[in-house]
Design goal:
Structural class: alpha+beta
Largest sheet: 6 strands, antiparallel
Radius of gyration: 21 Å
Oligomer: single chain
Strand order of the largest sheet: 1-11-2-3-10-9
Shape: globular
Number of helices: 10
Number of strands: 14
Distance between the termini: 50 Å
Length: about 300
């Protein structure tokens, strides 16, 4: 359901994506604020602060980009990978409002970097891959860009510019304190030749409509994104209340959605031959599977 933006009466707080469009400017966007869901995902891992911050940013981006999917059974996977970086793998995905993620890193090398390492220091030379799996259509497509810039958000902007050819602005903020972790994000895009559903004949990054929307969205402060007292409707009202029409679309609630289970792993192991299974079994005859996303161990009996 969509509605015109008026001085906010409804209040959307944590763990929900709010979609919006600005028809006169051929623009669409998403705003999200993660709270309890972020804490749930992060609590499964004993990550040091820089890695917690990195994963929190990645989860916000995953929720923003994944919510663009029209296919309810579709999945968005974001993967940042290097060969010799301190962080050699970061994986997050989104499906039907469920998000999950994990980071693989070298703890000793990370400790030598100090409290606030740069993206370059964490990854070195790497790449960002964004994959859309459209279940209903049986289609899958992927874009890969160098992992450059000061943040994962900038790398995602490069993905949309290079792979999708859609002018995109993304802002992400993370705040951690004794009460927990809060992550907020805003994504705004310009879709020439119609909002959605029509072929984009050309892309103008300097189109006056896009310049206008980008300037308004760029006035957003990081502290506004993570302020729990500021609803997402209020945030959009502050940014775009001078526009003649802004349509707001309430999104589905977000949750932590690790899909691991003993039944799932049994189905995977059933595809292996007896010789391979024998190599996997421990002395008790069980195969122990470690889920990287939720840090759970599953003992699969012989």
């Amino acid at each position: 359901m969509s509605e015109a933006l008026t001085p906010p009466a409804a209040e959307t707080g944590f763990d929900r994506v709010l979609g919006f469009t600005i028809p006169e400017r051929d623009a669409r966007g998403r705003v999200v604020r993660l709270g309890p869901v972020l804490d749930t995902v992060l609590s499964a891992h004993d990550y040091p602060p820089p890695i917690r911050h990195l994963l929190a940013e990645a989860l916000v981006l995953t929720a923003l980009i994944g919510s663009l999917l029209k296919d309810e059974q579709g999945q968005l996977t974001m993967q940042a990978q290097t060969q010799a970086g301190i962080v050699d793998l970061l994986v997050c995905d989104y499906r039907g409002g469920e998000v999950r993620g994990y980071v693989r890193h070298d703890a000793e090398r990370l400790a030598a970097l100090g409290a606030n390492p740069t993206l370059k220091a964490l990854f070195g030379e790497g790449y960002l891959a964004i994959t859309f799996d459209l279940a209903s259509a049986g289609e899958r497509y992927q874009g890969i860009v160098p992992l450059e810039g000061d943040s994962l958000a900038q790398a995602c902007e490069s993905y949309f510019a290079q792979s999708e050819q859609v002018p995109t602005m993304i802002r992400v903020a993370i705040r951690s304190d004794k009460q927990g972790c809060v992550g907020g994000g805003l994504l705004v895009q310009h879709l020439p030749e119609g909002e959605e559903g029509r072929e984009r004949l050309h892309v103008q990054h300097d189109h006056p409509h896009w310049e206008h929307v980008k300037a308004l969205a760029g006035s957003l402060r990081h502290d506004e994104l993570v302020d729990p007292a500021l609803s997402m409707e209020t945030l959009l009202w502050r940014l775009f209340h001078e526009e003649s029409e802004v349509r707001v679309l309430s999104g589905a609630p977000l949750s932590r959605g690790c899909r691991c289970s003993a039944e799932y792993y049994r189905s995977v192991l059933a595809k292996f031959g007896e010789e391979q299974l024998a190599e996997m079994r421990d002395e008790a005859g069980k195969i122990v599977v470690d889920c990287a996303f939720c840090s759970k161990l599953f003992e699969i009996a012989a």
